[in-house]
Specification:
single chain, 411 residues, mainly alpha, two-stranded antiparallel ribbon, two-stranded antiparallel sheet, 4 strands, 3% strand, globular, xanthine transmembrane transporter activity, Uracil-xanthine permease, membrane, transmembrane, transmembrane helix
Length: 411
Amino acid sequence: MNRMFVPLQGAQMLFVAFGALVLMPLITGLDTSVALFTAGIGTLLFQLITNRQVPIFLASSFAFIAPILYGVQTWGIPATMGGLMAAGFVYVLMGTAVKFKGTDFIHKLLPPVVVGPVIMIIGLGLAPVAVNMALGKTGDGSAVLIEQSTALIISLGALTTTIIVAVFAKGITRLMPILAGIVVGYIMSLFFGIVDFSPVANASWVALPNFVAPEFHWQAILFMLPVAIAPAVEHIGDILAISNVTGKDYLKKPGLHRTLMGDGVATIAASTFGGPPNTTYSEVTGAVTLTKSFDPRIMTWTAITAIILAFVGKLGALMQTIPVPVMGGIMCLLFGSIAAVGLNTLIRNQVDLSEPRNLTIVAVTLVFGIGGMAFGIGEFSLSGISLCGIVAIILNAVLPHQDSKEADETS
């Protein structure tokens, strides 16, 4: 590839990832400029650990939205960052275990019957937040920010655009449904006069992102640790996907242990600066597939571009002016899609729900997650994805497997 075009290819990859990258911090109340910075830093660290062999880009992980919302509300942003740093160490520990024990223990500890319902809870648990924001309310529904009829028109416009681009668009455009939805929703918001440009006018062109140093509270740390379960398993699928695209086996070279460690270190670095956890982006993998841009140097330039844009103050301020209904409309599809990924995990791996053991694990996990079950002892409490992950793992460990002979007799 001509070296002159590598930086341009890198900028193109960031454009593909941009919508999802900034949407996550907007939903959780984190700083979009910090998210850009930590995505860039995280990707560079990942490349360093994997010897610059894997052409993937790391950025904001949607799997952590619900835990971050709960953490920020309960302990504040600094303590939440401390918990997310601990989650990053889980990745590193898993990478170390894979290096010495192989991947079998991961499949035994986290089989599809555990991972599937946990991923479903990540999406379904956020459904009320998406609907409230689509109707012009705050995420918890406690306050009305925009008149409902106006909000509904805007959110449906953003949602419809996202669906049309995702289903009917061709080429690289098809990989940018979130960005397209944001743009159309924003234009509609301008038409209704609900966009406040004062933050952009007051912002300087060059500005330091609002970095936040982590603090460490054991409640936040224990709450975040189990949340790393589902994203860690998804990471394996993402590495397999990019391996299939490039025709190289990245599970062997540089090795799954290195990619897991790289993802973990990227998340640790992100939380150090107050940014969202990092994960591999399937949108960018799709763009790599379409453009045949297999050179990892491209992702280096994607990361550098993200870091540079993080210091453009007016860009960060502009992101903050995106109205709530725009995000809510897109989230209706996004969170449903996450739940569908969990369902597909069960289907693709042929998890037999007629088997009482499997049915019990899935049923209890789903009801605990959707119903808002919480366990607490003193100051320590578990709820949401954290509780669901632990419950699913325990049930999978203690419930006996049904052997084939018993299965035949009961069928």
